[in-house]
Amino acid sequence: MSEEVAPAKLIAGLIKTLGPLAKTKNINFEIDLLQEEHVTGDEEWLRTAFKNLLENAVRHTEEGGNVHVAMRREDTALFFEITNSHPPIEPRELELIFNPFYRLKENTGEGTGLGLAITRKIITLHHGEIGARNVPKGFQVWFALPMKKV
């Protein structure tokens, strides 16, 4: 797990891949990425983590909604926020959604309830943190990854 990975490049490629699904739901992507920043890790694992989060955001955004993807520097970490225009979820479920096989009660769509559990494991293996919260514009999953050491 010692490759140099450009998260902005990974995210841009995944958003392009998700474009047709987002278009069928008339979902607008708002992207605010730092192109020059890098992390150290396994590119395929990180791609899987980003893919899980972005697919969830699109899948659980109502037609005509928004998905905002932001990245910023915070000290020695890159901080990511993926926000979608999903109604707030119950506060007690904000931690439970990262448990294997856990699904929100109103979630009747496809999926096994493993995506966020896998994503948490990947972020943790990369010495990062991940969480979820309700925000004024909807629902947000955030995570932080240590920046590549120079």
Overall description:
The longest helix is centred in the first third of the chain and has 18 residues. Helix content is 33%, strand content 29%. By secondary structure, the protein is α+β, with helices and mostly antiparallel strands. It is built from 4 helices and 7 strands; from the N terminus they run βαββαββααββ. The chain has a single domain, classed as 2-Layer Sandwich (Heat Shock Protein 90). The strands form 2 sheets. The chain has a 5-stranded mixed sheet, covered by helices on one side.
| Overall CATH architecture | 2-Layer Sandwich
Please give the alpha-carbon distance between the first and last residues: 16 Å
Task: Report strand order across the widest sheet.
Answer: 2-4-5-7-6
Residue fraction in strands? 25-35%
Low-pLDDT ranges: none
What CATH calls the topology is Heat Shock Protein 90
**In one word, what is the shape?**
globular
Instruction: Using the coordinates above, name the CATH class.
Output: Alpha Beta
**Count of separate DSSP helical elements:** 4
- Look at the structure and name the CATH superfamily: Histidine kinase-like ATPase, C-terminal domain
Based on secondary structure, the structural category is alpha+beta
Rounded mean pLDDT is: 90
The number of domains is 1
Residues in helix, %: 25-40%
Secondary-structure element sequence?
A: EHEEHEEHHEE
The major pleated sheet works out as:
5 strands, mixed
Determine Rg (CA atoms, Å): 15 Å
Q: Please provide the count of β strands.
A: 7
SSE layout and pairing:
Elements: E1 3-5, H1 7-24, E2 28-32, E3 39-41, H2 43-59, E4 66-74, E5 77-84, H3 93-96, H4 115-125, E6 129-135, E7 138-146
Parallel strand pairs: 2-4
Antiparallel strand pairs: 1-3, 4-5, 5-7, 6-7
Helix pairs in contact: 1-2, 2-4
